[in-house]
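From the pipeline queue, job 12 of 40. The input is one protein chain; the requested action is below.

Action: predict structure.
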Amino acid sequence: MTFGAAIDVRPLFPRERQAMLGLLRALSPADWAKPTVCPGWDVHDIVGHVVNDYLRRLSGSRDGYGGAVFADDETLPAYLARTNEEFVRAARQLSPYVLIDLLEHAGSQLDAMWATRDLDAPADLNVSWAATDVNSPTWLDIGREYTEFWVHQQQIRDAVGLPGATEPDLMAPVTDIFARALPYTLRGLDRPEGTQARLEVTGPAGGRWTVVRHDGRWRPAASGEEPAARAVLDQDAFWRLATRGITVEDARARATLSGDPELTAAMTTLLAIVA
């Protein structure tokens, strides 16, 4: 198995969105203008970006609409950066109330779309940070979308100083989906057959993920024998590392690393966004 056991996050979308909407409705006009960890974007911009995520996904996965095209020689990260910025700039013309209404209206349509999907079927959009040579399953594609929405909510909460939505049942799937990037993270490091590496995330939303070197690639495995390398991070450090809300160096300073130093160094470069 390339990606590990399937998980179904679809029941969590309405709850995550209600937490987001409750947060946004409580913000003052000054809060909407506060800067965030995303360079050049304030709270209003992140909300506009989430609206873009909702509408673009409905347009592509439900309606089969291709949308913006790649420019000549444009890479996927460059394409996403360009099209995201274009929408965010346009959304600056929209009031907070309009943005909230769009999230509420489009969100229920997204829920209905996800409900029709076969989780084991090939994904509409592959998850490039989990593998580039194997098609992603739908459950991982949908899980990636959940992490996107949850992370943007946390970025807004950080900006305005209102923590929340970190209950284990909401946050643990984010940690779990991000951990599916571990085999791809280690792809450049060859090791003897059967070598294991283990990621441990501490906290109520944490867990333990082991990968093993088998048939020339790293694959998810049950935790068994003592691994050749172990990286332990708390849940807050892990999600921020995976989205580059903190640097690799900051994550390593917060981690406990043991065993093969090349493997542990690679494990602390885990990235679960397109960048």
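Job complete. The first strand starts at residue 196 and ends at 202.
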